[in-house]
Every structure is written in structure tokens, then in C-alpha cells.
Amino acid sequence: MPCMAVPAPVGPWDNDTIAMTEPVMPEPVMGVPIDICLAAPCPPYAPPPVQTTRGRRKTKLCKLWQENRCRRRRCPFAHGEAEIRVMIADDKQGEEKPWMKDVDEETTEVNALANFMAPNNLQRSQRMAMRDLIQHFVMENIEREATTKVTGQCAVNLDAFDTDLDLVVEGGVDAYPGEYQTRLATVLSTVGVMTCIHMRGDQPFVTFDSCQMAVVNGRWASSYFKVNITFRSGSCPERKEVSVMQMALNKYKTQRAIVPVIIALLRSSSNACAIPEKALLIMSLAFLEHSRTHPSFYNLQWVVTEFFRFYSNFDFRKHEVCVQDTPFPLKEAESDEVVIHDIMCDMNTAGGIEVECCKTSFNGIHERLVQNSVGGTRSLFHGLVSEDLIQHRNRILGEQLPEGTDPASPDQIVVQSLNSLADAIAEPCNISMKTLLQNLWAGKTTDPTEELTPTAAAIEAAARRLLALVKEDAMDC
Which of 126, 183, 285, 419 stands the most exposed, by the fewest C-beta atoms within 10 Å? Predict the structure, then answer.
């Protein structure tokens, strides 16, 4: 069993925000074509108009805001003369959203939803342990000098609770296309893991569900993510891509929290097209680069809302999206297909999505965000995060159990099972099972000529699995 090294805990998203300044339109960003966006330039942040919903009105200016120090999520005081007499939604209106539970007043709702969508420490440990396990299989069965690296969103800590784990195996020996993928799939199938080989561009990769590794170790049964393994000899574009993404994200330590939020909103929308998460990451970085000089850039509510407004009016027919000095270059020819260009791997990550479908999806979410921001609701994301997504997330993270059950760790389940087994053996009619278990613990096999009853055979099989787990724990200790 590979050692499941626990990485350093990943803290919450940066909560640094800056109070709004007077709206001053920025200079155009160098290298960005004027006709990219069909709409007007990014509008400055404006306070919501006077509301007629139940609540109370703001009557005083915020002193912290006047000193550029107000970081309250729902400030009861006005930020500027325009907000005087603006209605504040009553705290009793609506139900608190699950991502807002147990968060402090300084945490913005965007940061709270980003943390809600993120994997927990156990999941991060499982992903690293899976990398170690694949490294073991590769070294023992394919190439001793090969190294397995994490790529994609997991490598830049922008993965969600069910994001795929992308791995790339770098080897020093050239092989014909698909040779190593086929050999790894064959090795995994010998231990009972069913794999598939798919194509990403012109590159084949092996994929399987992590929970299938339960045949190697029962603890994998609680994991839930797909594993995608690519082989490379020589130059590795995936590794270069991680480096470029990390450098870009380092410039936007506050704004990077919008990525998991955007993914959550699009996954919840009934009208949304299935844009891959990698494409959304590229779109987010390109948008942040384009909007970085805007005066509201540190207001995450504005950044999320403007992201959807910008791309709902973006001219996808003429321009593609990528991460480079010019994030929106012209296409070679106009087309109705959205192009989100991965420069390093030279592929379109959008997966053949049509322009109108994409623009409709973004426009629908933008309209709802605007409605929530001026409608007196408690949550910016009211009605935008589906109950199905919340329940799916809770099931995967183990935070929602069937009624009448208590949470139990894998170790507790093993202990409970062993106790039940011990109770069964204690019965006088099962006295012969004691000898059977002693033989199992000593590594002795059952006499093949001995015919076991169905009950004894079932107990023997269960005991073998349980004792294997117990022995693994003993060796780990």
C-alpha cells in the first residue's frame, strides 16, 4: 500500500478586498483588439437602486469605507452618497445558503462558495496517494526511470471536489503511440481495475474511476474522481502548461477564487452548455488579464458578474481565447465553433461548443446575478447553485448520510465488522471457524479437499479481506 502523504492544508481563498474608489475608466489594455466585445466597455461598479423590499434603509456613511478599510460582506452603512436611503435586505429574508455557514463577516460570498466547492484534505491526500500508486505500477511494470507528475487543475489548486486527476508519465524511452498506455491498461486489468483508452487531440490516455482501486486497498472505495494518465517522452507540454498557469495565477491571488465559482454556476444552470473545466480556467485567466486595470477589479462580486457579461457579448465567431500576451487573437477564419485554445498542447479545449449556445448560457447567468445584486436578496448566487449539485457535493465529501445513520471512518467500519465476526464465531455451532481464522492469520490456506458450507465460505472470504486491512494497518504502524 503506498504511503498516503498528507499535503500541507490548503487555506481559504485570499479574502483581501479593497474598498471601491471613484469610477475611472482604465486605458485600453495593450494588444487587445477593439472589436472583441460587442458591448460597451466594462461598466464601473454602481450601488443598487432604492429597493421596495422589506428591510431598513442606509442613513449614514461608512467610516471604514471613507478610510478605504471596509471589508464587511453586508455593510449596514452607505458606501458613498448614492447609497444613502438604499434599502438593506432584512436578515430574516430567505434561507442561509450552505456555503455561507460558519463563515466570518470578512469572507466574501465568492470566497465562501469557492471554499464550498473545493476538495477537502482527505480528497487531496487521495489524489496524491493515487499518483504514488500509479508511479509504483509504472516503475515495476513499464519503465524504472519514469516519473509521474500531477497536471491540470489539481496541480494549481483549482480543482473542485470531483475534478479529474490528470497525470502525465514522463519516460526516457521512445515507444510507438499507445504502447505504454496499452501496457498500463493491461497491468491494471490484472489486478481487477477496468480501464479505457481515449484520445485527447492526437494523444491517447488511460482513464478509470479511482474507486476501482478498492481491489488493491479497500480504502479506495470511498474515493470519487476519474484518473487520466498520459505518457510523454522528451518534451512535456502538460508540465509547461502548469508552469504558465501558475505564473498567471500568481498575479491574481485574490481573483483566482472566481474559477470554482464559475464552474459551480455553469454546472447548475439548466441552459448551460457543457464547457470543460480546463476551458473555463483559460477563459478566466484571459478575462482577468483583460480587466486587471478596472477600478472594481478587487470587488469579487463585480468580477464574477462582469465575467459572464463580458463573454455573453464576446465575438466568439471572430476571436479565440487563450493565455498569452494577446488573450483574444483573431481566428484564421470566422466560424460558429467556440475556440478556447490551449497553446502548449495546441488543442481546442472547448470541445466543439457552438457560439450561440455558449453566449446564451453566459447571458442567462449574468441576468440572474444582476437581478440578485439589486433585488434585496441575501445571496448573490440565490437560485444559481442547484440543489442537485449541493447534494452531489455532500455525498462525495461524506457530509450527508441517510437518516438514522452515523458517520463512520473506514477504520471504524473494519472494527465493527470484526466485532460482528467475533460474535458469530463465539456461537458454539461455529467453533470450527476459530481454527479457520487462526490459519488465515498465519497465512495458511484452506485444505482444497475440505468442503465448506456456504456460510463458512462467506465468512472465510470476508475474514480474508478484513484481515488484509488489519495487517496493512499493522505494517503502516
Answer: 419
